[in-house]
């Protein structure tokens, strides 16, 4: 349980460390085969139960990993470490005492090894979640299962297989080297790919932030132009007032003020509301999406009334979710008669609510399967985006998503909580 908690970052309540072993002992005493084989698969089953929408290969990895580590390091202690201090474990009459000692020392020994090798399971987990190396992860999973199968066969049929202990020892020596080499490779590869992803994301953000800055500069330019025009307009009105010429004043208002007022209320000026987003990365990405929508003829509306500093989840995950929803909303709105897009960021106590709403060509969209992989109302193979949203949100159990479609509008509301 300690090994599983370390690799999966799943924190168990302290009492489970007493309850679960006791339950397991009872099962083992009542039905030894169920206890023996259940030992190998209990954490695999729990991984799939706790993270049903996660990477299946990763669920299998974190489920099998504790069993393999306990076996590898336990035998390393028994065959190599203990003999160095004069303890011949398998020659002693009372083996159970040394079994307990091995189990007690395995976890601290394991922590020492990963600290020495500088294995960072946080980076490794991110790499698995981003599908950086699914093929390599498949190889690791298969190798662990094969190792467990061989060791189990040698233990169960040890009396019928000559030199079974000798074979187990050598298989353990070979696989422990291979296993940690694979972990080191995956860890270093994951770190490099994460760095590349961050650098690429930063380049995109800088470009989009630059576009946002240019857009704001253009808006300020237009406002300065309005200011200059308004001085002339007020001068014209003053002349009309001085001459008591109501028709002249009416003409100025209808011909100039009316049109310029409409121009000031143009949706592109709503983009200035992004100043309430206090993170340049989020601001730049969202501005890029909104500017793209506006340039493609979509009417945009923005609601961000409060200053937003904390996005409640990993920043890159928030940007991915927001980008997917905006991209889908823009594409769907363009198919409607009057393309509209609304984006809102709302602070509600300890929660941050993201709302993305768009116009649709149909009065109501079928929302029952939209998060299934590959599903899309636009055709086969177009539903990857929303499936990714569900996978990202699966990492944040306190976050939730709701979807609504009615009256030619489709909206998705995501509530982010820590």
Automatic annotation (TrEMBL):
Keywords, sorted A to Z: ATP-binding, Membrane, Nucleotide-binding, Transmembrane, Transmembrane helix
Sensor histidine kinase NatK-like C-terminal domain mapped to chain residues: 314-416
Keyword Membrane: yes
Keyword Nucleotide-binding set for record: yes
Gene Ontology MF terms in the entry: ATP binding; identical protein binding
Sequence intervals crossing the membrane: 15-45, 57-77, 97-117, 137-157, 169-186
Gene3D superfamilies membership: Histidine kinase-like ATPase, C-terminal domain
Pfam family, one: HATPase_c_5
Name used for this protein in its record: ATP-binding protein
Organism of origin: Mogibacterium diversum
């Amino acid at each position: 349980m300690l090994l599983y908690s370390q690799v999966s970052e799943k924190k168990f309540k302290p009492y489970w460390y007493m309850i679960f072993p006791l339950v397991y002992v009872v099962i083992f005493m009542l039905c030894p085969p169920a206890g023996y084989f259940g030992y190998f698969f209990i954490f695999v089953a729990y991984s799939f139960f706790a993270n049903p929408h996660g990477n299946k290969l990763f669920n299998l990895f974190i489920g099998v990993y504790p069993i393999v580590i306990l076996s590898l390091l336990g035998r390393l202690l028994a065959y190599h470490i203990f003999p160095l201090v004069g303890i011949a474990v398998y020659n002693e009459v009372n083996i159970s005492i040394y079994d307990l000692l091995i189990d007690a020392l395995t976890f601290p020994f394991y922590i020492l090894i990963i600290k020495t090798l500088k294995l960072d399971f946080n980076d490794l987990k991110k790499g698995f979640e981003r599908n950086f190396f699914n093929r390599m992860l498949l190889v690791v999973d298969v190798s662990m299962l094969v190792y467990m199968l061989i060791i189990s066969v040698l233990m169960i049929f040890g009396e019928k297989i000559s030199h079974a202990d000798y074979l187990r020892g050598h298989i353990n020596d070979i696989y422990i080297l291979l296993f940690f080499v694979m972990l080191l490779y995956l860890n270093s590869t994951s770190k490099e790919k994460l760095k590349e992803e961050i650098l690429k994301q930063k380049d995109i953000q800088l470009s989009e932030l630059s576009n946002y800055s240019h857009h704001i500069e253009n808006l300020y330019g237009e406002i300065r132009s309005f200011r200059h025009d308004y001085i002339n307009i007020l001068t014209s009105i003053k002349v009309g007032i001085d001459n008591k010429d109501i028709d002249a004043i009416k003409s100025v208002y209808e011909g100039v003020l009316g049109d310029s007022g409409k121009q000031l209320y143009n949706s592109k000026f709503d983009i200035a509301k992004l100043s309430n987003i206090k993170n340049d990365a989020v601001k730049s990405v969202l501005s890029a999406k909104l500017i793209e929508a506006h340039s493609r003829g979509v009417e945009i509306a923005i609601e961000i009334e409060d200053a937003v500093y904390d996005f409640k989840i990993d920043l890159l995950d928030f940007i991915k979710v927001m980008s997917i929803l905006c991209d889908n909303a823009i594409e769907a709105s363009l198919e409607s008669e009057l393309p509209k897009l609304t984006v809102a960021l709302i602070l509600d106590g300890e929660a941050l609510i993201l709302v993305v709403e768009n116009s649709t060509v149909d009065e109501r969209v079928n929302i029952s399967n939209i998060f299934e992989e590959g599903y899309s109302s636009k055709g086969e193979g177009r539903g990857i985006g929303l499936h990714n949203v569900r996978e990202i949100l699966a990492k944040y159990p306190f976050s939730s998503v709701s979807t609504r479609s009615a009256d030619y509008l489709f909206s998705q509301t995501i509530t982010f909580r820590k």
